[in-house]
Amino acid sequence: MNNGKLTEYIIPPGTECVGEWAFARCRNLRSIHIPAGCDVSNRAFESCPALSEVYIYHDSPDEPVAGYPHLLALALRTWDHEAAVLIDNAGDPCTFTDYFDSRLLRYINTPDDDGFDPFLAGGEEDYDNATALNEHIRNVRMSKAELIYERLSITAPVTEELKSVFTDRLVRFNPEISFAVLTPPSDHNEAYRNLYFELGLNKLTDTESLLSIAGKDTRLRAMVLDHNQGNDSTIDAMIL
């Protein structure tokens, strides 16, 4: 708990339980390995924003891991009060994706301002409640978009109905949110970038806006220019 130096942890085989807040606020923790038969308490990974891979093992540490490590990590980051049920369902990929799909559907239908806790302490004259609320909403939308990207990127089947719902949400966020998720460099974001253009989300806005969000990322800017040719009149100017 509160260990800022911890980046990876392998829970020893035979461990029976990970208690509440065991890894809470380990802000640089990226990877965790959980052995078979180990119970995980609900708040074990509360406030772990860097969590990227969570591995659940079968009966032997030498057997292949189960589930989808990045999808599980994103779920734990988002719903950190529900770690127990997420881990319980993660041993079998089909069971986990079924549970994840239902949970994600509820999540994206929750108002974006849900859970906002305004600053209540007095004497802070420079505190801007409206700005804080807008930042909260943006963070929630970024979280929703990232979860959708990851779910649509993995090989597990997703029903056409759910795919339509998920894609519609990315469309609603375009370009400020769904495209902004693509900007940090990572292996996962490479898959998200391909999906973004495959779904044609780039066609819903102009080239200049996408290039502005892409910033100095030359690879992402090149993808925008390549896929947006003919979409609008700004393309020649952007190339020049």
Name the helicity range: 40-55%
Order of helices and strands: EEEEEHHHHHHHHH
Overall pLDDT score? 88
The span between the termini is 52 Å
Derived structural class: mainly alpha
Low-confidence stretches: 233-240
Radius of gyration: 20 Å
DSSP, total strands: 5
* Sheet having the most strands: 3 strands, parallel
Percent strand: 5-15%
Widest sheet: strand order? 1-3-5
Overall geometric form: globular
Tally the helices. 9
Any overview of this molecule?
Helix 3 (93-108) runs antiparallel to helix 4, helix 4 (129-153) crosses helix 6 (187-198) and helix 7 packs antiparallel against helix 8 (218-227). The N and C termini lie far apart (52 Å). Residues 233-240 have low confidence and may be disordered. 45% of the residues lie in helices and 6% in strands. The chain is mostly helical. The longest helix is centred in the middle third of the chain and has 25 residues, at 129-153. It has a domain at 1-91. It has a 3-stranded parallel β-sheet. The chain is built from 9 helices and 5 strands, in the order E-E-E-E-E-H-H-H-H-H-H-H-H-H.
